[in-house]
Amino acid sequence: MAKHPIKPQLKSLFEERMKSLLEKDFENYLKILEKEPVRSLRCNTLKISVEDLKKRFKEKAWKSKQPFKDYPEIFIIEGKYISSRSQDNNTINSKKNFSDKLNNSSKNSSLNKSLAKKSDKVDFEANNREQSEPNLQNLAPGEFGRSLEHQLGYYYIQEIASMLPIIALEPKPEETILDLCSAPGSKTTQAAAKMENTGTIIANEVSFGRLKILATNLQRCGVTNTIITKKDGIALCKKLKQKDIQIDKILIDAPCSGEGTIRSSPKSCIRWNIKSIKNLSRLQKALVASAIEILKPNGELVYSTCTHAPEENEEVVDFILKEFPNMKIEEIKLPIKCRSGITTWSETGWEGGEAIKQSCRIYPQDANTEGFFITKLKKIK
Fold it and tell me: For 41-82+137-151, CATH number?
């Protein structure tokens, strides 16, 4: 895979914190940050079957892969096939140009011949390493999002790690789901598909600009079981509690510092600062605390972020377990490699219980995805 066009410039404090988390694996983390993320999408089964979408990809000459047997709706697009004739012409022209340059040189003709042979071998080996199929090329800029299938809502462009919170939550038909921080709608539309457009999803978003994007995506994907609300998440939970409304399952994909999105959004490095992490941790705790109040007995809550910061992850989970003894961490089964949650963090002197290890830390170098953190909790009474 090609290197990312923009090499992330990590701030020194961020590097120190990641070294503390990863130790010997830190160098592997740095290497993956320089590589382009894979192009992944989720088939929207509300509008098209997985097999029919796969046929459409074949007709478009897109090479697709379904990496997870149990989740066939998840696709990776590896590139687009070009005709062998075009490829042959490119190869011939490339060799001709190289040969012309050598012939135009007036110095040491024998050396030129030697260089030509060596250069041909190097180019061939490099092509073999980077691209096992010589007639496969990257999609053109914008081709992924401008396709007819995307416009019709047949698929949702979504990073694989971003799909995991809903896989952990396991929405079922006829359930009542609260997506507390819903925009732009990737997880809301995913939940609606799992629920087969039955039951009720409350999709909440506080920002009007992001709310419009959410509404557009729900409409494009044919979602009909969702109520959109525009309210501060804490205030919404208080309102629902006043109305004695209880929820089967809640997703809190919380606002976070976005450390896990550096590959797809290198600007995250520029925005990163330790003060925002501390502020976000307070907000995240308040959001979860208010949501637990409206969760049904035996109801489940998934808390997730796209950051690695323990203050926004394990420390929030530790807060839940201490403040709400009726909440218990559940085991999560996900289709990619996950690391256990940590129980100590030297940067803040924090220590937590062993149960927190059931949380999932997802690092980019482990599964070639964005970084994520996921915890599933159950209200036991």
Answer: 3.30.70
Q: Which one, of 14, 380, 300, 366, lies nearest residue 160 by Cα?
A: 366
pLDDT for position 6: 61
The span from the CA of 195 to the CA of 303, in Å, is 20
92: left (phi over 0), alpha (psi -120 to 50) or beta: alpha
H-helix or E-strand containing 339? strand 339-340
Point out the residues of the chain with pLDDT beneath 50: 1-5, 86-99, 101-131
221, 256, 306, 360: the catalytic one is 306
**Selection from 191, 193, 164, 156 nearest residue 39 by Cα:** 156
Q: Exposed e or buried b for every residue in 198-217, given b needs 16+ CB within 10 A?
A: ebebbbbbbeeebbeebbeb
pLDDT (0 to 100) of residue 2: 44
Phi, psi of 319 (to 5 degrees): -60, -45
Residue 80 CA to its chain's centroid (Å): 22
229: β partners: 204
Q: Which of 230, 235, 240, 225 is nearest to 182 (CA)?
A: 230
Q: What is the torsional sign of CA 160, 161, 166, 170? A: positive
CA distance 282 to 290: 13
User: Rounded distance, CA 364 to CA 33, Å?
Assistant: 8
Assigned CATH topology for domain 12-37+162-379: Rossmann fold (3.40.50)
Helix, strand, coil shares of the chain as percentages rounded to 5?
45, 20, 35
CA 332, CA 344: separation in Å to the nearest integer? 21
Q: Indicate if 338 belongs to the active site.
A: no
Question: Residue 236 burial by CB count (10 A; 0-12/13-18/19+): exposed, middle or buried?
Answer: buried
Question: Which residue ranges make up each domain of the chain?
Answer: 12-37+162-379, 41-82+137-151, 84-134
Pairing of β 247-253 and β 176-179: parallel
Report residue 347 as tokens: 């940067």
